[in-house]
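Reproducibility note. Readers wishing to regenerate the assembly model reported in the main text can use the exact inputs given here. Chain order matters: entities are listed in the order in which they were concatenated for prediction.
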Amino acid sequence: MHAKTLRRWLSIAAAAFAISPLVQAADYTASDEITVLQGFKPGGGSDTLAQLVQPRLSEILGVDFVNEYMPGATGAVAWTRLAKQSPNDGSVVSITNTPMLMTNYIMNDAISYTTDELTPIANVVTDPGIVVVNADSPYQTIEDLFDAARQNPGTVTIGNSGVGGDDFFTTILLEQATGLSFKKVPFQGDGPSATAAMGGKIDASFNNVGNVYGQVQSGNLRALAVFAEERLDSLPDVPTLKEKGIDVVAGSSRGYSAPAGIPDEARQQLIEAFQTLAQDPDFQAEAKKRAMNLDIVTGDDYRAMFERMESQYRQVWDEVKDDVAQ
Amino acid sequence: MDSSLVMTGLVNVLSLTNIACILGGTLLGMFVGAMPGLSATMALALLLPLTFSFDPATGLSMLASLYVGASYGGSIAAILLRTPGTPSAAATVLDGFPMSQQGKAGQALGISLFASFFGGLMSGIALLTAAPLLGTLVLEFGPVELFAIAVLGITIIGSLAQGSVVSGLLSGGLGLLVSTVGMDLTTGTPRMTFGQINLFSGIDFTVALIGLFSVPQALALIENSHRSNKVASRITDRLVPRLAIIKRLMPNILRSSGIGIIVGLIPGTGGDTASWFAYNEAKRFAKDKSRFGNGEIAGVAAPEAANNAVVGGALIPTIALGIPGSSSTAILLGALMVQGILPGPNLLTDYGDVTYTLIWAVILANVALLIVGLAFTKMSVSVTRIPDGFVACAILTLCIIGAFAINNSLFDVGLMLGFGLFGYWLSKAGVSPAPMVIGLILGPVMETSFQQSMLIGNDSFGVFLQSPIASVLLVLALLSILQATPVFRWLRQPFKRRLKHG
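Running the prediction on these inputs yields the following C-alpha cells for the assembly.
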C-alpha cells in the first residue's frame, strides 16, 4: 500500500534480522540512521553489495542503514541527488560505481554533478574485465582474436554492457593500445552480452569476471584474457594483457561515497569501519562465496582512484566521441 | 534427469513451514500484483534479504510463490477497475473489464484464476521435464531473432485496432514514438530528453501504462457516478467456472500456455509481451471475432494463462544455463547465489537438490494460487459494492503511489498524470490505448535489437534472412499484416466468381 513505508519497513526489518542483539558501543556520531542512495533497481549488483556490506557495517558503527532506490540515467539520478541535494552531515551516502560515476558526466553535458562534489569513503569490490568467447569459437587465444582483427579491421564483433559502461571503455582502451579496431556491439547489461557470446551471435564479449565465472568454469564460455594487474587466483590459466605487453587494466568497481564537506569525524569513522570490515575473515569468506572480488581502498586512496579514472576516461572520450556519435 | 534429486526437491518443499510460506508468499504476491506500480520484481528484491536467514528450501518456496501470485494478482484490478496491476495484465483489461461491467466480474475473475492456474502448472511441468532441452533454445535467440519477434508483435496493433484502423495505427505509432525517448543505445546520445536527466533512461513503461488505463477510468467513474444503473455492484455470479466452460477454453489455455513458456524463456521478452501474443492468437482462432473487446471469456483466459506460464518459461534458461529469462528470475538467481551456488549450467546436476526444490515450489505455488486465489478474489469482488466516487479516489491514490514506487521519483508521478490526461482525451476521442501500450512495450526491444543486428551484420539487411528463425517470424509478420488488408480478399475473388458461375 504505502510503497515507501513498506520498503523502509522491510529494509529495517532486514537489517534487524542481520544484526544480532549485541550491537556494540562504537557508535557513529553523525547520525543514528544512514540513508544509502542506490542508483539502480533493487536486486542488481549494487543491491547485492549493500546486502553483504551494510549489515556488518551497521554492527561496527551501531547505526541502521536504510536503502533508498532511485534508478535512472545509469545511476546519475541518485548521484546527482547525492552531490547536489543531500545533507552533508554524514547521514546520507551512496554506492558509487566506477568508472560509470565519471563516464556519466564526461559523456553527457546534461549530467551536472562531478566527483569534486563527493567525499569518497571506500571502494569495496572490483570486478576485473575479462574477454570471453563461445566454447566452439575458433579463437583459442587472445592472439587469435587480435590476428582476426588485424586481418579484417572493424569486423570482429565485441559485445559490451552498454555505451559508457566499463566494458565499452575497455574496448576503446584496448584499441588505442594495440592500434586494432573492433566492431563494438552494445547490450543492455553484462548478462545479455555474455549470452550473445554463448550463442555465437558475437565473436567475443568484454565482460566482468563475476558475471561469467560460472559459465567459464562449466565450459560454456572460454576466457581468453583478463584485464587485471596479475593473474587471478580463481582463473590461474587465463593470461593478463599485461603479460602480453599491453598495458590495459580495467574493471568495474563499487564503493561508498558521501556528499562533499561531511564532518571529518564522520568521514574518519566510516573509513575505519571499512578498514575493520576488510580484516573480517567472515566477510571475506562471504564475499568469496558470492564471487565478489574484494578491493578495499579507503579515503584519500579512493579519491586518487577517482582522479586517475577521471583523467583517463576523459582523455579516451575526447579522442573517440566524434566517431561514436556519428 | 536424476530422479533421486527430483524426489529430494519434492521432499524439501513438503514441510509444514514451507507450505505455510508458500501460502503466505502467494497471498503477498497477489496483493503486490493487484497494486498498480508494485511489481513482482520489486517485491522479490525486497523480500530477498529477509530470506537469508531462512532455510534454503523455505526461502526459495516463499520467493517462487510470490512470483507466481503476483502474475495472477495483476488481473484482479484489471478486471474490476480497468487498472492493470502489473504490465502483464494490460491485455486482460480488454475483455475482463467489459465482463465486469456486464455484472460478470466474478466469472471473469474465476476464469482468470483457472487460466492462471493451468498456465502456471503447464509451465511448471515443462520446467520439471524439459528444461535442459528447451534451455538450449535460448541461445538461438540473438538480436536478429529478437528483432523479428518484435516486428511480429507490432503487427498485433493491426488486429487490435477496433473500429477505425487509422486511429489504431495512430495510437500504436505514438507508442513507438514515446518509446524512443531516452539515451540511444549505440551512441549514448540523449533523445527528446530536453536536458531532463529523469528522462535519460526513457519513459518507464509502467508509468505510462498506469496513466493510460487507470486515470481515464477514475475520471470516467467520477463522471458517471450520479447514474443509478450500476450493474457491476450487484455481483452474485459464481466464481468457479463450470466444467463445460473450462473444457471449451482448454485449447485456448493450452495454446496460450505454450506461447507464455516460449516468450518467457527468451531473455528480453516477458509477461507483458506474452499476454498480447496470446490474446491475438485467441482472437485469430476464434470463430466470432466481434465479441473480443466486449467481454469474451477467451479474451480473459488467453492473456492470463500466458502471463502465468511465463513464470516457468523464464525459469527454464535460468536453471538450465544460469541465464535469467526475466528481471524477476535474475533475482531468484541471486537467491541461489546466496546459498553459495554460482549461476551456470550445473544448477540441475551439481546443485540439483536446491534447484529441484525451486521447481517444486513453483508447481506447488500454483496449487496454492488456486486455493488462496478463491478466497482472495471473493474478497476483492466486494470492491464493486463501494460507490463509484470512492473507488475513483482510491484508484487515483493507488496510481500516484504506484507511479512513485517504481523509481521513488516524483517526476514519474507527474509523467503518469500527464499520460492520464492524454489517455482521458484518447478515450473521449474513441482511440484505444491498447495499441499504444504494445508500441511502448516492443518499441525499445525492436530498436535495440535492430541496431545490434545491423552492427553484427555489417549494415546489411541480409542478416535477417540468414537466420531461419528470423526469416520465418518475419514472413509470419508479413502475412499478419496482409491479413488486415483486403489483399487476401482480392486474391480469393476470382475463385469465388468462378464458383458462382460454375
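We highlight two features of this model. Confidence is low (pLDDT under 50) at residues 16-25 of chain A. The longest helix of chain A spans residues 299-324.
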